[in-house]
Design brief:
Number of strands: 5
Shape: globular
Radius of gyration: 20 Å
Helix content: 25-40%
Order of helices and strands: HEHEHEEHHHE
Distance between the termini: 10 Å
Strand order of the largest sheet: 2-1-3
Largest sheet: 3 strands, antiparallel
């Protein structure tokens, strides 16, 4: 259903008739410093998830707009040559922020300004999840050794995520028929 919603939203998007870099970009407080050395700036940015398609389309797809939420308070710029990594706990809005920057979801307020100059690249994560337990997805066929396994969980900062899965922790089945993990909006 998530894929259907994204495809529907994409197909209903307004078509741009001219190249993105030739458009009149919005003015913002930081734009005086924005040039080819600072290709991305967000000012008072907030983005809404779950409302990127019209209410009629949501009803048609059997969903409601009551599933929307907003992430806000983004004020930053990225200079040429810098890499932006978005980190945070599960469900904190990382995917929402990135989708807002690349114009995949709408802004939640008229004060939101995303200003670009030149090219901005986005490298997405492509998860590969087996339809089995989280532990088996981590081991990927290797033998279970508690000491090595615990070091992997620590190195990947997965313990807070395991706490959110409840009593079964890493024995929770994930994948197609299991629980949805981060980024599965």
């Amino acid at each position: 259903m998530s894929a259907v919603r994204r495809l529907t939203a994409f197909l209903y998007r307004e078509t741009r008739s001219e190249p993105f870099e030739d458009q009149n970009l919005p003015k913002c407080a930081s734009e005086k410093d924005l040039n080819t050395n600072q290709p991305l700036a967000l000012v008072s940015a907030s983005f809404r998830v779950g409302s990127n398609i019209s209410d009629a389309s949501m009803i048609e797809l059997g969903t409601t707009s009551g599933t929307s939420f907003t992430v806000s308070g983004f004020d930053f710029s990225v200079k040429k040559g810098e890499v932006l990594a978005v980190c945070g706990p599960v469900g904190s809005g990382k995917t929402c922020l990135i989708n807002g920057v690349i114009d995949e979801i709408p802004s939640a307020s008229q004060e939101t300004e995303v200003v670009t100059s030149g090219s901005v690249a986005y490298v997405s994560q492509t998860p590969f999840i087996l339809n089995t337990t989280l532990r088996e997805n981590i081991l990927f066929g290797r033998p279970f050794r508690q000491d090595v396994y615990d070091r992997v969980l620590d190195a990947c900062c997965l313990n807070p995520d395991l706490d959110q899965l409840g009593g079964a922790r890493d024995l929770t089945e994930i994948g197609e028929r299991g629980v949805t993990l981060s980024g599965g909006t």
